[in-house]
Amino acid sequence: xxxxxxxxxxxxxxxETALEVGPAKERAVGVPAVARATQMAVEQMxxxxxxxxxxxxxxxxxxxxxxxxWPEAKHRxxxxxxxxxAKAVAEEATKxxxxxxxxxxxxxxxxxxxxxxxxxxxxxxxxPMLLDEGATHYRPVSWExxxxxxxxxxxxxxxxxxxxxxxxxxxxxxxxxxxxxxARGLGTNNxxxxxxxxxxxxxxxxxxxxxxxxxxxxxxxxxxxxxVIVAGQNPGTNHPRMLSALEKTKRAGGxxxxxxxxxxxxxxxxxxxxxxRGVVGSxxxxxDVYLQVRxxxxxxxxxxxxxxxxxxxxxxxxxxxxxxxxxxxxRGFEEYAAxxxxxxxxxxxTATGLPRAQVEEVxxxxxASRSTVLCWAMGLTQHKHSVPMLRDAVNLLLLQxxxxxxxxxxxxxxxxxxxxxDRTMGIFERMPDAFHxxxxxxxxxxxxxxxxxxxxxxxxxxxxxxxxxFLGMGGNFARATPDTAVTEAALASLxxxxxxxxxxxxxxxxxxRRALIxxxxxRTDRDVQATGPQRVTVEDSMCAVHASEGRLxxxxxxxxxxxAIITELAERLLDGRPGAPxxxxxxxRDDYATVRAAVExxxxxxxxxxxxxxxxxxxxxxxxxxxxxxFATPSGRAELTVNPLEYPRVPPGRLLLQxxxxxxxxxxxxxxxDDRYRGISGGRRVVFVHPDDLREQGLADGDVVDLVSEWExxxxxAPAFRVVAYATPRGCAAAYYPETNVLVPLGSYADTSRTxxxxxxxxxxxxxxxxxx
Length: 773
Hints:
By secondary structure, the protein is of the alpha/beta class. The chain has 32 helices and 34 strands. It folds into 3 domains: about 1-25 and about 655-770, Barwin-like endoglucanases (Beta Barrel); about 95-195 and about 420-520 and about 565-605, Rossmann fold (3-Layer(aba) Sandwich), CATH 3.40.50.740; about 200-415, 3-Layer(aba) Sandwich (Dimethylsulfoxide Reductase, domain 2), CATH 3.40.228.
């Protein structure tokens, strides 16, 4: 059986005859990035609006970029944004509008045939819209009527656990805190979020090993480290401002190791457009060593590096490992060391695809470094064995005491602007009892303690009929999730789907029996409530909390802020409900400082919240491993763990596929159909394959194939991909998501974290008859 989704209809309407393939780039950013960012910003915002808006991005008295969560420097430049940040701002601050007349002209069935790029390019939503049962078009409704619809459906539920409250990482701390309080006030912990699909593996591994699911470094640590290892991450596209930090690392004499299956321009050379050397000079070489590891082989690499450190310590006792740190702050060293001493190097070479000499080159850099930072992203978190892989990454840094000292530490680089803050605010289906206790004390109610649904669990519940209403606070759930056909069918089975959104996306055309679109203010928009202009806060990848205040006139007088929407819903759904939290929702809405006052009393580390966000750059939350070398694990120590070596096995004639972003993309938002750094223009349906693998399969560059993943419950097919011969490891391939999410089954996820395995999907390439472009 081949599973199909509504996206297949959109594929039929995509004209990729303009697709061209050129050589991949060997350097990132520079003048082309400035030109491209300016072009897209002017197209969306116009010249004057572009100049006014970009001058406020990531500034102390401006707004936080709605893109990635890379931190801002304490002393900021006038242009504190990157190319993709400029694109994200332009998409939100666009002059394009999607009014009720648009929906009257385009039935939902037609919109479902549009591709993601076309949907997103229509502009900002302007009015609340309702799709009635059996209707073909959305129609405008008042906010009161919209809330009536939600209240009607909630009243019909037999259990609050039939509700799903999804959260995107764009949501502010204030909105996230109110959102989780509403969900728990109704009696459920069903709070899946985008972290479930990205860094959940990081949080699981870090909590187990160091006692907190957050990274342990500051921006200064990255800039002053003697060695930075960047594994499973492509900062040139996904976190371009990180390149400035890596440039400072190199200028200070530090070394950089890149570990990535694809050679990415942003890890090779950086042309800083704010420096003369980046415009007319030679730029900055970044990676001193570049390991093109086989997909899923990173755990074997970390174990091999650990084994080499132990060998060096045995040869020169007392010169390699930090014995004082290991004795005072860790547990499990002897067991871990015994495990590594039995490591099978032949298996390491099979798993990594790397000769021992290349691994030894990195080990020499580790031996020479007195302070090492390890950064990573989705390349490490989206495998079945991601959690043990990351436990082994932690092991490697613990050996040399690289936690809790300057220029060293663990750095999971978050991909969305406030995904870490959402979790801090309680957006998690399994919050600890201490959080519930504080929440209950603050709001005089008994919050539910039974664990709720994560993202995979939410889709399973919708599919199985045990969830009936979906409420999405931002994001594009239908396209961000795996197993597209299953997810779409699950959403279609619901009684009501509610999307709080700034722009049109596929989640608006994949809907339940009834569907609501509630248009909200963006990060760039001015937010004025009863007490005047409001600001919100966000938390970046490095635990820093700072304020954000939009300055642009909202695109419509009918928009409401996320906080306003949540609090108005709460008044409607919780008023008179037995056991509901005792909260002044109107006060929360009128003045967000009252929300922050409640956060201060519930969440540790937010003492004197309001005053501290007045300070330039905000404040940094406490982090015991970083600040005190203290570890909130059951043993009170950092845990060195023994993890059996795992890596994907691929049958003959098959390839291991990873999903990746293009350079004109941010998560599921498609800014354009180019991928400048990989040499792709005019299209997205491409699959990158090693030339020798193509020859073995009887294929050639330019052929068109279907990507087919094979599972016990049936094949999953992503049709019509143009083959591109590319420098990948043998046996590995790459293609863009969300187009390839259809290939990842709902039941294929990481052990412990349940993060979908989007970086290791076994596929076959099935030629399309007559399919050469």
